[in-house]
């Protein structure tokens, strides 16, 4: 609900009264409908409380139940939420004239204000107030007291980041209102081994060059539930595991909610090559060369140069060499004169 700030005028002389202008623009004014002030404006349901809740990928894979202590406002058990002593009579709140709410203006920009309905701070929205001597001794007239309660959060297996865990009616209690909910939004922490996409998982495994060429049979990974995953990869028909190759373990991904089905686990192969100097015996090296595939067809060229190379180069340096215009101009360079257009 926007309006011009009455202190600045409307640029056309003395503007109309703010209440009259709001009434014309939005149907508001002294006769405001329920929802914009008065006893009928109080919401019948309290506000929800939302909090982020960090979980690990293991928590989401296996499911988790956790308990925690919560301190919240509850209706005073002594005065039943009235705020006054037994048989004491409350008087109309002078601050809000018994409405329980007040109208206030809030600046939202240069020359622009918005009108808001706020709960009366004096009577806490009730519209009436007790004299100091008549107030409840337990809650001091506030109508609520603090209470400590143990709450339990259950995270179903297969949950994902962004899912909401709702504890219904566990938010602060307010007299004459249904309490709101406590809502926890799941935030997954980064995992050092696995990445998740939907119900699928991705991880890298490192194998040796010997395993790449000759096959492997060992536990290659520890899963989120603590199981070791053993891979048997023989070497039939010269089938080699190559760097960057991906193998899929069907049914080893994340579980689906409320189902026994699971996604898949994708393993990307990383091959660890030997360090420099690992093999210095020439006879063994020659034998290894005989066993490995031979180079392809030689490249033929009219001119062949022996070039030097740097083994420590990185692709981070790619594009760093200067090229193109160097900014140097030859003084003897002939000037190019404009030519006449040909007929």
TrEMBL record:
Descriptive protein name: CR-type domain-containing protein
Residue intervals of every CR-type zinc finger in the record: 63-148
PROSITE patterns: ZF_CR
Entry-linked InterPro entries: DnaJ_C, DNJA1/2-like, HSP40/DnaJ_pept-bd, HSP_DnaJ_Cys-rich_dom, HSP_DnaJ_Cys-rich_dom_sf
Superkingdom classification of source: Eukaryota
Keywords tagged on the record: Chaperone, Metal-binding, Repeat, Zinc, Zinc-finger
Pfam families: DnaJ_C, DnaJ_CXXCXGXG
Region annotated Disordered, chain positions: 25-50, 315-343
Residue ranges annotated for the CR-type domain, each copy included: 63-148
Compositional bias segments (type: Gly residues): 28-40
Gene Ontology terms: biological process: protein folding
Compositionally biased intervals (Acidic residues): 328-337
One GO molecular-function entry: unfolded protein binding
């Amino acid at each position: 609900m926007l309006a011009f700030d009455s202190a600045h005028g409307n640029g056309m002389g003395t503007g109309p009264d703010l209440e009259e202008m709001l009434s014309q623009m939005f149907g508001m004014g002294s006769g405001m409908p329920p929802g914009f002030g008065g006893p009928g404006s109080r919401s019948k349901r309290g506000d929800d409380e939302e909090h982020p809740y960090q979980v690990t990928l293991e928590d989401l894979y296996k499911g988790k139940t956790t308990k925690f202590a919560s301190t919240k406002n509850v209706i005073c058990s002594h005065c039943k939420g009235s705020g006054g002593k037994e048989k004491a009579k409350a008087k109309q709140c002078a601050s809000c004239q018994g409405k329980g709410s007040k109208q206030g203006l809030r600046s939202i920009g240069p020359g622009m204000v918005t009108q808001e309905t706020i709960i009366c701070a004096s009577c806490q929205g009730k519209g009436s107030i007790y004299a100091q001597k008549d107030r409840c001794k337990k809650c001091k007239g506030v109508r609520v007291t603090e209470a400590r309660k143990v709450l339990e959060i259950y995270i179903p297996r297969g949950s994902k980041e962004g899912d909401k865990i709702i504890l219904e009616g566990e938010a602060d209690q307010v007299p004459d209102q249904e309490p709101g909910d406590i809502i926890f939004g799941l935030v997954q922490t980064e995992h050092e081994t696995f990445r998740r996409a939907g119900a699928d998982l991705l991880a890298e495994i490192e194998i040796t060059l010997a395993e790449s060429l000759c096959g492997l049979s060992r536990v290659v990974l520890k899963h989120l539930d603590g199981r070791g995953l053993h891979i048997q990869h023989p070497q039939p028909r010269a089938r080699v595991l190559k760097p960057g190759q991906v193998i899929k373990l069907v049914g080893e991904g994340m579980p689906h909610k409320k189902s026994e089905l699971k996604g898949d686990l994708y393993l990307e192969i990383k091959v660890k090559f030997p360090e420099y100097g690992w093999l210095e015996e020439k006879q063994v090296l020659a034998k290894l060369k005989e066993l490995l595939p031979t180079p392809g067809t030689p490249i033929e060229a009219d001119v062949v140069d022996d070039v030097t190379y740097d083994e420590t180069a990185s692709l981070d340096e790619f594009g760093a060499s200067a090229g193109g215009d160097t900014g140097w101009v030859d003084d003897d360079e002939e000037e190019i004169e404009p030519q006449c257009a040909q007929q």
